[in-house]
Each structure stands twice: as structure tokens, then as C-alpha cells.
Amino acid sequence: MNIGIDKIGFYTPHLFVDMNKLAVARNVEPEKFTIGIGQEKMAVPPITQDSVTLAANAALGILDDQDKEQIDFVIFGTESGIDHSKSAGVYVHELLDINPYARSIEVKQACYGATAAIQMAKGHIALNPESKVLVLGSDIARYGLNTGGESTQGAGAVAMLISANPKVMVLEEKSTYLTKDIMDFWRPVYSDKAFVDGRFSNEQYISFFQQVWERYKEKTGLGLDDFEAICYHLPYTKMGLKALRTVLDEVTEDVQERLTTNYKISTTYNRNVGNIYTGSLYLSLLSLLELKEDLQAGSRIGLFSYGSGAVGELFTGILKPNYREHLFVETHTKLFDSRREVSVEEYEEIFQNTLPTDGSNIELDIENDPAHICVSGVIEHMRQYVNKLR
């Protein structure tokens, strides 16, 4: 049975800050941000958006009524969950009016969460071929103002409908994965900001890729020349390139050029959004699928997922005939074109404007947020959500 991605959608907030201007404000050479880590713009989430609304807005744009009826499992990968007990998936389930006779859960392992969700979805569909699974990867990356990680913040979500006989990509069966207990990135339950050992994390990312790549070759007999492209989890767009370069000497210059060129295309969306943790790999895939118009059906795409702490996995997908007909290119183009730039001062004010943590009630003005689904406030410790289309 072929199982894979039937639909894929994306959402990011309507605000962004220019990385050149942020660099100047931080007394940093702009090239450090735009070339050194490869970021142009950083999405800025208003107080009316959180990981739930980002995911719901991403899924809203791709699901039709038939999808909502056939979905019997919602798996929400995130490390920006809003509740230690109730899953973010349950909120999305209700906001989108998905079939109630279904499962809805949240999974967590840093940026690997959405990949774990996909693997769970494949197993579920193998047992229930008529089912569809909604996989969500949604996060808001926060490190704090004037911190070392500030330039790798971002916000957004990717939604994927996983099914049998998918229209976009068949996910191949063989994959390789690795787990090690390391402290390269973490966020204690008492902190709303992450802690990171940047150099160590970079080293481990590359090491994990090299290890799962070597094991993948042994397991499958395939090599780099069997791939049209490899997409990477991108905490910043230069990170994946560092890993790719460590294996390029295995192939000819022509293959090196193909993989490097396609890698650059795959980073375009991430470059203009920033780090979205669990969704970053799939935003990279979406960028490649939508922006490389001559990508051929039957192409094998590699997918490297890395979640600090750490879990890594390398798996692959084969593009289906006429896959471009089932993408939402126009929707995503309009999303990017409609965004509004904010000044560094505005960004700092928005960053510090957070929901109360002392039990206070708050009502938010959602009129200035163009998203269809928003956080409208907090009442008695319960976040309030609004779907404006109802």
C-alpha cells in the first residue's frame, strides 16, 4: 500500500521584522544574519496567535468537508504547547469541525515531533486504509531579546494530510533513526524561553546526519546520486548546507551542483519566516515543491529530521504524477505578499506583550489580525479561540 502526503499547507503570522534592520539595532554586521546564518526576515507572532491558531490556520486552507469527515486521527507535533495536560490537537479538532469520532493527541521531541507524527500516521493508515490523518507541526521559537538565539526565532505551522494513495508524495518504507541523551537545546517547564548550547547543537546536528546517512546507505543500497534533493530541518538556513557539504564528495560535480541548487531553493520559505521548530523540515519541503517548477514526478526527495536532545531520522519520498496540481501555491504566495513589516521597536513591543500567567482574565482585540482563527483572550485560565468564518 502506498501511504504519504496527500495535501500540505502552511501558515505564518502577518508580521515580520527585517533581519538587516535587526542586525543594525543589535550592533551586528547585517551579513552575519543574512549570509552567516542565511536569514532575511523573521516572522513575528502577535499576542492573538499561538501554536494552536497557527496550526489551525495552516490546516484550514487545505481541508475540505470530505477530508474532515475522513480524518480520524489528529497528531500535533510541537514544543510550544499551551497546556501540560490537554493536547493542542483537541483545540484544532474543534476549531476545524473535524469528525468527532477520532483520536487527537500532541507529541513532543523538540523539532522531531512532526516526523514522529508522520510515522505514527503511516502505521495507523496501514491498519485503516480508508482513514486520513492530519499531522500538524506548529511552533513559536522564542529565545529572548538581545540574546544569542534571537536571530533564529520565528513562528509558523505546516499541516499535512496523510493518506493511502496520496496525491503529492509517497513516503518510502525504509528509514534510519538515532537517539542520544544530550543537552544541546532544552526548555524547562518553568521557562517560556529555550536554552541552547549553539556550537554543541550544530556539531550534533551534523553528526546525527552523518550517522543516519551511513546507516541509510547500508540499509537501502542507495546513494546520493539516487536523490533529486535532500530537505533538512532548518533552525537557520545555513545549517542544512553544513551537513550536506560533509557528504558531497561521494558524488560527481554534476550531482553536487544539483543537490546544492535544490537545497538553496528548499530554504527560500524558511529564509523569510525563521525557525518554526517541528514544521521547519516540512516548510523546506514545501518550498522545494512549490518553487522548483521543473521538479519531475518520480523524483526521490530525502528528508532529514533532527530534534535536539536528541532524535534524528532520515527518510524519503517519491513525487507522484501531477503532484503540482495538488499544491496550494497561490494561497501561500498571497500569504507571503500580504505580510507587513514592523520596525525593530514594534517587534520588541510585540515580543514582550504576552498573555497573563497569574490567572488574570484578558480580552484581546482580534480585528487587526487578518487570520481566520485567533486567540481572543483568557477567561478563568482557559484560552479562548475564535474561528471568524463561523
From TrEMBL:
Its EC number is 2.3.3.10. InterPro entries: HMG_CoA_synt_C_dom (IPR013746), HMG_CoA_synth_N (IPR013528), HMG_CoA_synthase_prok (IPR011554), Thiolase-like (IPR016039). The keyword Transferase applies. Pfam families: HMG_CoA_synt_C, HMG_CoA_synt_N. Residues 2-165 form the Hydroxymethylglutaryl-coenzyme A synthase N-terminal domain. Keywords: Acyltransferase, Transferase. It is an enzyme of class 2 (transferase). Residues 176-247, 256-352 form the Hydroxymethylglutaryl-coenzyme A synthase C-terminal domain. One of its GO terms (molecular function) is hydroxymethylglutaryl-CoA synthase activity. Belongs to the thiolase-like superfamily. HMG-CoA synthase family. This is Hydroxymethylglutaryl-CoA synthase.
